[in-house]
Design brief:
Length: 239
């Protein structure tokens, strides 16, 4: 383990979720989580001053969780060699069509401020403000200043982990985890239909739709409908 790995491990170990959202991630919609990430300034180690607290604010936007399979994930780009080996292991251990959930999210940082006072007092004030607003989807995280984004990732991981059972239960109750003879979950079929509708209206890039079909190895099945999108667009442009 190199020095950088040691820093990451230290940041993860010293990250605390002081206030979690009062709700799980939505199963059938987008969830906006507002966060306050408080840290002691990095320069504290140099100056010895500890009467200031860094407060970062932002939003973690979690898209609706999607049902995927190990086979689907193995066809996605951007995974390291080690990750792909792990996916291969999952395919060998479990059915390649065994459904699971894939969470997509993005971070939108808002503000950074340096507040006078030690971090516990700052956190108390933040909690009071949040309680007054009655905000159920605001969190407070105590992290490490230099690797604050690592602290944020730990928060996201724990949020996803705590939401997973409820999300799976709700999807299972609607039959969305059911897999057809081609190894494709019902939820994926419904998403493909939704993407076709959006692409036909010009609200979605057809090439992104093709990527989705390729990930499921379904392009041949939907090929005629796919090319019909371009024919319809050309027809609309004719005088």
């Amino acid at each position: 383990m190199d020095a950088n790995d040691d820093k990451i491990e230290y940041a993860v170990r010293h990250t605390e979720i002081l206030r979690s959202p009062r709700q799980s991630l939505a199963t059938f919609g987008t969830t906006n989580i507002y966060y306050y990430l408080v840290t002691e300034p990095a320069y504290t180690d140099i100056t010895g001053a500890a009467d200031e607290t860094v407060v970062r604010e932002g939003r973690v936007i979690a898209e609706r969780p999607r049902i995927v399979t190990p086979y689907y994930l193995s066809r996605l780009e951007g995974f390291s060699l080690e990750a792909r080996k792990y996916l291969d292991t999952l395919i060998k251990i479990y059915n390649p069509d065994s459904p699971g959930l894939f969470y997509a999210y993005r971070n939108e940082p808002k503000e950074l401020s340096i507040v006078t006072g030690k971090w516990p007092a700052v956190v108390d004030k933040l909690n009071t403000e949040i309680d007054k607003r009655g905000d159920l989807l605001t969190s407070i995280i105590k992290g490490e200043d230099e690797l604050w984004d690592v602290s944020l990732l730990k928060f996201i991981y724990q949020l996803v982990r705590s939401s997973l059972p409820d999300n799976l239960s709700q999807m299972g109750a609607r039959g969305l985890l059911n897999v057809d003879s081609g190894g494709v979950p019902l939820d994926a079929r419904l998403r493909i239909e939704e993407l076709f509708e959006k692409a036909t209206k010009g609200e979605y890039d057809p090439y992104d739709l093709k990527d989705e079909l390729d990930h499921w190895n379904l392009f041949a099945e939907y090929e005629d409908r796919f090319f019909a999108i371009f024919k319809k667009r050309r027809a609309c442009k004719l005088p």
